[in-house]
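Internal ticket #5521
Category: modeling
Description: The requester needs a full-assembly model to guide mutagenesis choices. All entity lines are attached below as received. Residue total reported by intake: 208.
Assigned to: D.W.
Attached entities:
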Amino acid sequence: MVQFVHPARDDISLEGVLGALSDPMRLRIVKALLAEGDCLSCSAAAPCPDMAKSTLSNHFRVLRDAGLIQTTKKGVENRNTVREADINARFPGLLKAILKHAGE
Amino acid sequence: MVQFVHPARDDISLEGVLGALSDPMRLRIVKALLAEGDCLSCSAAAPCPDMAKSTLSNHFRVLRDAGLIQTTKKGVENRNTVREADINARFPGLLKAILKHAGE
DNA sequence: TCAATAGTCCCATATTTCCGAACTATTGAA
DNA sequence: TTCAATAGTTCGGAAATATGGGACTATTGA
């Protein structure tokens, strides 16, 4: 019903990005998106199976609000992609530097 | 009275670092420490003058717990230094990538 | 010994996070 | 059409966390 709201490239803030990625679950979601061809539904990218749907939905909203991912509704599910180009244009090297160290 | 507790290098976590730096005030504190020769008292590194002492103290504790700074008591004040060597050893390139974009 | 200074600790309030439950929207049958 | 199933969102209350005021501690310098 809602068409998702994404910040413009120039409105992506460093604090927002860091805050979004400071949660282990969200870090895993972004990693999963990048690893799996960068287009996953919310549940397919879920960092752990026992997470409540509402919590998962909220994590995706945080990532979206921070400008890290783009979400589009495709049928009954959402397709999520990491906004790599935008993040890299705004903060060159940052995403790579963070994700290089992410995951156990 | 308390001798400050700092995590060992290997106990510094990525999420902890990102979480600590996801607050604009703490980001400014770290920037100030690095800019000013890396050894400032808490109040000298305060990101804005009207912040409550207790809040400022708490921000330093968060940075300390995350392993970002080292605090030693020197007379009546604290001397804080960024643990650059430890952070760089653990997450090469991360700190630089973040701080490059910090603070307009 | 006393006042001043720099921080810390404790507590109450305010904000955020988490999750269950109810709701919406889309698809694919019957 | 209608109905069930699926994927997410939204709402509300409980739990966790941040903020700041005030009292406290420790050190220095009169």
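Resolution: model delivered.
Comment from assignee: Chain B has a mean pLDDT of 90.
Ticket closed.
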